[in-house]
Design a protein that fits this description.
Blueprint: E1 2-6, H1 10-21, E2 25-29, H2 33-40, H3 51-60, E3 64-67, H4 70-74, E4 79-82, H5 98-108, E5 115-119, H6 127-138, E6 144-148, H7 158-163, E7 168-171, H8 175-184, H9 186-189, E8 195-198, H10 200-231, H11 235-243, H12 264-277, H13 283-306, E9 315-319, H14 335-344, E10 348-352, H15 357-363, E11 367-369, H16 373-377, E12 382-385, H17 397-403, E13 408-411, H18 418-424, E14 427-429
Parallel strand pairs: 1-2, 1-4, 2-3, 4-5, 5-6, 7-8, 9-10, 9-12, 10-11, 12-13, 13-14
Helix pairs in contact: 1-3, 5-6, 10-11, 10-12, 10-13, 12-13, 13-14
Length: 439
């Protein structure tokens, strides 16, 4: 099969590479000539475990190509995937669909036979209908179907998520289009991956519903963590106790500084606005958005409290600034709220992240970026863990104490055991676990 991927961002690059691994001939398109030149030189613009090897393998095999020529890429393609960004409009809070519609218009001018146009970008309900309108208006005689096929890729484990997904969702009422999509995903039939065929609008809503539910689950356990601190309970035991219930499950029940990333913040807000416009407001998700925004800023207050109520003329060591480990993505990371709040309180910041510092350097100012964890700690008054990279899970605490002015650790991911920290002589502050555990 021949596949065109419009957009070489995270979703387009990962999906295109994985489809080529399935045996399809894939051409990835982007208007950014510099980006395409870099990809053709073998330089991948994102950090994603396993992607580099798969990328190199399929480029070498001739199944994966990159170009700015959308006409050449779309011509003769069995499926054309729209994988462009849908950022949140800062004024309305809705998803900005201008890139989607621009891609649809460009595709319409390149169609020369039957193709399935697939919206893989995260889009609100009804977007597929409008994509169809754009193409028909531009090219009334075009032979095509529009399909919704949302992505469910987690940054840091995207290759496995694509190759061994929980499910594939395909929204279309066209049997012809369904056959194309079945052929494209045929390798997944061998591992009996559930494939849900449904209406286009339903498929679009499934994506938003999934992301907002997970965001709600994160927010729920964060609020339970706050309650645990008030009543002397342990949030990790609570999470384990409820997660063992098969109806609930253990995933996304980890107390932390709030959700971030490229999906949850914009998707929760986009669904809230879609529901309001439809006259069916989602009060629970509105509350989730409000709570999460407040939580990120409140994390700075915890650091201030751990430093005897003042950060004036103090230095804080930060480990991890990306929104999650195994990615260099800084979008809506809690660190973007926490670090400026610490600086506003008078602190100087020394920080280290294994992959995110290049991007963070453009978003966070007046930070001393360090070469490793221990350099960040040198002469600091407290250590704060924001992102739970594996590199931070086995710190040498004798060395930590020797580098810090005071042995204060604020662990916003609960990666250490309070009793172990007490034994090590660390003044340990975590989320949702009783102070007595560290005594």
């Amino acid at each position: 099969m021949r596949v065109a991927m419009i957009g070489t961002g995270y979703v387009g690059l990962v999906s295109g590479t994985c489809f080529s691994e399935f045996g399809a001939d894939v051409v990835c398109v982007d208007k950014d000539q510099v980006k395409i030149d870099s990809l053709n030189d073998g330089l991948i613009p994102i950090f994603e475990p396993g992607l580099e090897d798969l990328f190199s393998k399929n480029v070498k095999a001739g199944r994966l190509e990159f170009t700015t020529d959308i006409m050449a890429a779309v011509s003769g393609a069995d499926a054309v995937f729209i994988c462009v960004g849908t950022p949140m409009d800062s004024v309305s809070g809705h998803a900005d669909l201008s890139y989607v519609y621009a891609a649809a218009h460009d595709i319409s001018e390149a169609l020369d036979g039957y193709s399935v146009i697939v919206t893989k970008s995260t889009v609100p309900v009804g977007t597929g209908d409008k994509v169809e309108e754009v193409i028909k208006k531009s090219c009334p005689d075009a032979d095509f179907d529009v399909v919704s096929n949302p992505e469910f890729l987690r940054e840091g484990s995207a290759i496995n998520d694509f190759m061994r997904p929980d499910r594939i969702v395909i929204g279309s009422n066209s049997e012809r289009a369904k056959d194309v999509m079945r052929n494209l995903y045929r390798p997944l039939f061998l591992i009996e991956t559930p494939i849900l065929f449904t209406q286009r609008q339903t498929s679009e809503l499934i994506k938003y519903s999934a992301n907002t539910f997970l965001a709600m689950k994160i927010t729920f356990i964060n609020e339970i963590a706050d309650l645990c601190e008030k009543v002397g309970a342990d949030v990790q035991d609570v999470a384990k106790g409820i997660g063992l219930d098969g109806r609930i499950g253990s995933k996304f029940l980890h107390a932390g500084p709030g959700y971030g990333g490229s999906c949850f913040p914009k998707d929760t807000l986009a669904l809230v606005n879609t529901a309001r416009d439809a006259g069916s407001p989602l009060r629970i998700i509105e509350t989730v958005v409000e709570i999460n925004n407040k939580r990120k800023t409140s994390m700075a207050d915890r650091v201030i409290a751990a430093c005897d109520g003042s950060l004036k003329d103090k230095t804080i060591a930060i480990l991890g600034v990306t929104f999650k480990p195994n990615t260099d993505d800084m979008r809506d990371s809690p660190s973007l709220d926490i670090l400026p709040a610490l600086q506003k309180a008078g602190a100087g910041i020394r920080a280290y992240d294994p992959e995110g510092m290049d991007e963070a350097h453009e978003m966070l100012k007046d930070i001393k970026w360090c070469e490793n964890s221990y350099e960040a700690m040198q002469g600091a008054d407290a250590l704060v863990i924001i992102t739970e990279w594996n590199a931070f899970r086995g710190l040498d605490f004798e060395r930590v104490k020797s580098l810090l002015r005071k042995p204060v650790l604020v662990d916003l991911r609960n990666i250490y055991n309070p009793d172990d920290m007490a034994t090590a002589g660390i003044d340990y502050h975590c989320l949702g676990r009783p102070p007595s555990s560290a005594n």
